[in-house]
Amino acid sequence: MHFDHAGIATDDADGLADLYTELFETHVAHEETFDGMEVVFLSLGNGYFELLEPTAEEGAIASYLDSNGPGIHHVAVATEDIDAALDNAQEMDIGLIDEEPRGGAWGHDVAFLHPSDTGGVLVEFVEH
Fold it and tell me: The domain spanning residue 80 has which CATH number?
């Protein structure tokens, strides 16, 4: 496994993308509207920043912003076998938000672990 991306909740993905592309001398690698969000991936060489802006008043990112304000929402780790990664987490008694992988941004399979069992961090497994 290796670091894949940090998901950052924001109410202005385009503005934050403009700031980060200049600040980090990078570029937008991928953009899409997905699951009630505008999603912008910025390339960082060995990973990405995934900027998440809600496009609806309800949804995971809208709720996160209402409760916490902008900031890091989750950390994603890439795996070549998401089912095995979920089985391992479950064997370790880590709560699964997603017991089965689901479709995520950029066409990847994803699954989230419960932050109460991962040091307060929302962890995402992603399989490309």
Answer: 3.10.180.10
